[in-house]
Design a protein that fits this description.
alpha/beta; seven-stranded mixed β-sheet; five-stranded antiparallel β-sheet; 26% helix
């Protein structure tokens, strides 16, 4: 009763000339009929901003058709039904949380369990209590959950699908999921510019450390970033994307828009800025950001590859690789590391360096290591490597 007067009140709200105010009670009692649908698939729907991990955030102009395509395609690709129960742990301002979690779950008529903010133990309790079946996430969330001292207490056997993107899933972490729960982490790949996935692993044939295949309706290429010549199986080049999920351009930024697109075979392709390769089965693998490569004495070092190898070290919870100045090599490899709580004070920087030299090519191995309590992350959970690089 305490709410009745507030809910039924008719406040004096002033509206702009030419607009009308409709009371919600009048809408749901059908006293007023809705007007004609004027929104078209070609109208601007939303301006999600890039995460800023590689530069200043830019607004991406997405039309209703690009969001609707990937909302539907995510449902079909993941075998979603009205019986699906999804955990919404990725922020809804993030393109993955918006399209691949919120919109697709609504489209399929499933149940959406919403977390107000990330908390690893709360996530585990929600999965257990609500019998979550589908969890799309950022790999850093899974890494954090597995690092919980209470992880062994939780029952996550309701999960039939776990996957995501935004960063590479370390092979060692994916293997733990497979060994403990029989879950294959289905990595996907996409950008704010592609309304979430442009690539995804088939749920029944996923490969580890892999972006997957081009998503429904997508056409993709791997090309030489300078000449745009197509490259063959196994050759590393820039990933180009064409399809209905691709955005129209950057909001009020024609220069950036022009630089982001290129024409190949008469089609308008988006330049992802990511380096990758294709295997003989048509699966795509990412090497790293084009702008993030470290040039150590002429050797190309891709930070994501070194990070994935470092995750095999039993003491490392998280790691971020950046470039450091070196008088001899020009640039050298530096690892910024978060240790597991039970290894703090027991492992030295030199221990990490020695282990790295024994477990990867010497030119890739970090020559410098810095221990930190946490890595800087964006609101969507991505490691902000650029912040660390600029500080260096």
């Amino acid at each position: 009763e305490a709410w009745q007067s507030w809910i039924t009140a008719r406040p004096d709200v002033r509206v702009s000339p030419g607009l009308a105010l409709h009371q919600w009670t009048a809408v749901w009692t059908h006293e007023r009929a809705p007007g004609p649908l004027l929104v078209r698939s070609t109208d601007l729907a939303v301006l999600p901003y890039t995460s800023g991990t590689t530069g200043f955030p830019k607004g991406c102009m997405h039309l209703h058709r690009s969001l609707m395509h990937n909302s539907q395609a995510t449902t079909y690709w993941g075998n979603g039904t009205h019986q699906s129960v999804a955990l919404s742990a990725v922020p809804m301002f993030h393109i993955t949380g918006m399209v691949s979690v919120m919109h697709s779950t609504i489209y399929m008529g499933g149940t959406l369990v919403i977390m107000p903010r990330w908390d690893r133990d709360l996530a585990a309790r929600l999965i257990e209590h609500h019998r979550i079946t589908h969890w799309t996430n950022i790999p850093t969330m899974v890494i954090d959950l597995l690092a919980s001292p209470r992880f062994a207490q939780y029952k996550l056997d309701s999960l039939v699908y776990i996957g995501g993107g935004g960063a590479a899933m370390p092979q060692a972490i994916a293997q733990r999921l497979l060994d403990m729960y029989g879950l294959v982490y289905a990595e996907g790949y996409g950008l704010t510019e592609t309304a979430a996935p442009s690539h995804s692993n088939p749920t029944d044939a996923a490969k580890q450390q892999c972006l997957g295949m081009p998503f429904l309706s997508a056409q993709c290429r791997v090309v030489n970033p300078q000449t745009l010549e197509p490259l063959g199986v196994g050759e590393v080049g820039e990933i180009l994307i064409h399809g209905p999920m691709v955005f129209e351009g950057y909001w009020r930024n024609p220069e950036a828009t022009a630089a982001a697109f290129v024409e190949v075979d008469g089609l308008r392709f988006f330049r992802s800025g990511d380096m990758g390769r294709i295997d003989e089965d048509g699966y795509y693998f990412i090497t790293d950001r084009l702008k993030r490569m470290i040039n150590a004495s002429g050797f190309k070092v891709w930070p994501a590859e070194v990070e994935a190898l470092l995750f095999r070290h039993p003491a490392i919870q998280e790691a971020c690789i950046i470039a450091a100045r070196d008088a001899y090599r020009g640039e050298t490899v530096k690892a910024v590391v978060v240790l597991r709580s039970d290894h703090e004070g027991k492992v030295s920087e030199q221990d990490i360096i020695d282990w790295s030299r024994a477990n990867m090519a010497v030119y890739k191995a970090p020559t410098q290591v810095a221990f930190v309590q946490s890595l800087p992350k964006s609101g969507s959970g991505k490691v902000m490597w650029r912040h660390l690089q600029e500080a260096e």
